[in-house]
Amino acid sequence: MRGRVLLDEPMSRHTTFGIGGPADALVYPETEEDLRRAIDWFRERSIPFKVIGNGSNLLVGDPGIRGGVIKLTRAFKQISFSGNTMLVGAGAKLACVIAAAAEHGLSGLESMMGIPGTVGGALVMNAGTDVGTIGDLVSEAWLMNDSGETRIWRDRELGYGYRESALSESRMVVVGAALALRPADRVDIYAKMNRLREKRASRQPLRHRSAGSVFRNPPEIAAAKLLDRAGAKGMRVGGAEVSRKHANFIVNREHATARDVCELIEQLQRLALTTYGIALRTEIEILEDT
Ligand SMILES: Cc1cc2nc3c(=O)[nH]c(=O)nc-3n(C[C@H](O)[C@H](O)[C@H](O)COP(=O)(O)OP(=O)(O)OC[C@H]3O[C@@H](n4cnc5c(N)ncnc54)[C@H](O)[C@@H]3O)c2cc1C
């Protein structure tokens, strides 16, 4: 195996929630070859592994992760341009990608403003807002399968839907992607970015650690509105609290454990069901290993 390897690494250091016990091994591949070797190494030993991005949509259990975690770095953070197409590594942070596109006078990514994920995580989750999602922009994704073979999936194969894609269930590792953008006036792009940044700051509890929206929006009503009406704001289990600013955010107020968050999630699901007859499904991914 090549690249930095950390043993018994607390996942609380790698999730925006700041929660999660240790992973047996956290590997940082710097190149595609490193990634292939890491995948081979885990496969040959029948050790399960999970690729993560910025851990901004994850709740990792208190016992941690038995097996490997792969976090892409170096070559996977590269960004380049070919005309109006942006070529991005899966490990690049969305904030860097959005800034680079704006600098090049290319529009399309502004709707991702403030999403604290990487390109890889965004492609898998089809991250976005009501203004647009990354799936609208991906023309192709470069992938690596469990055997270390590379594949290209075009937009139609990626099966984008609301916060989901064909990648979610595929076990494919996203290596990078091509994003089709539109030329636009830089001033307009920056103005839109600022507008969306301010909107987010006014609505979301950005001073506290969280994993963003906990629940997917059911078809009937936005999850935040439903939970607010049901009186969920301020509900608390241990160090985990439903944000008083945004009812679909659970924030880590004081050394919350994954158990605290899971219990609070269950309470909110019961509340939504008994008050409105609506079953809420989680948007955050819960990685529990007991
Ligand atoms: C304050 C805050 C605000 C947020 N706002 C939004 C929002 O407006 N819209 C929105 O959609 N989301 C939002 N999120 C959630 C989150 O930022 C997004 O889902 C983001 O796309 C997750 O990216 P990540 O790199 O952190 O992925 P992670 O959380 O690390 O991983 C998410 C999933 O992607 C997989 N994955 C990650 N990288 C790869 C890869 N290279 N190959 C294969 N699989 C991979 C992981 O295995 C996991 O299944 C918010 C989160 C926070 C904390």
UniProtKB/TrEMBL annotation:
Its main location: cytoplasm. PROSITE patterns: FAD_PCMH (PS51387). Its EC number is 1.3.1.98. SUPFAM superfamilies: FAD-binding/transporter-associated domain-like, Uridine diphospho-N-Acetylenolpyruvylglucosamine reductase, MurB, C-terminal domain. Pathway: Cell wall biogenesis; peptidoglycan biosynthesis. GO terms for cellular component: cytosol. The active site is at R163, S213 (proton donor), E283. The keyword Ion transport does not apply. It comes from the Bacteria. The keyword 4Fe-4S does not apply. Keywords: Cell cycle, Cell division, Cell shape, Cell wall biogenesis/degradation, Cytoplasm, FAD, Flavoprotein, NADP, Oxidoreductase, Peptidoglycan synthesis. Its cofactor is FAD. It is an enzyme of class 1 (oxidoreductase). GO terms for molecular function: FAD binding; UDP-N-acetylmuramate dehydrogenase activity. Residues 19-184 form the FAD-binding PCMH-type domain. It catalyses: UDP-N-acetyl-alpha-D-muramate + NADP(+) = UDP-N-acetyl-3-O-(1-carboxyvinyl)-alpha-D-glucosamine + NADPH + H(+). It is found in: Cytoplasm. GO terms for biological process: cell division; cell wall organization; peptidoglycan biosynthetic process; regulation of cell shape. Belongs to the MurB family. HAMAP family: MurB. NCBIfam families: murB, PRK13905.1. Cell wall formation. This is UDP-N-acetylenolpyruvoylglucosamine reductase. The lineage of its organism: Bacteria, candidate division KD3-62. The gene is murB.
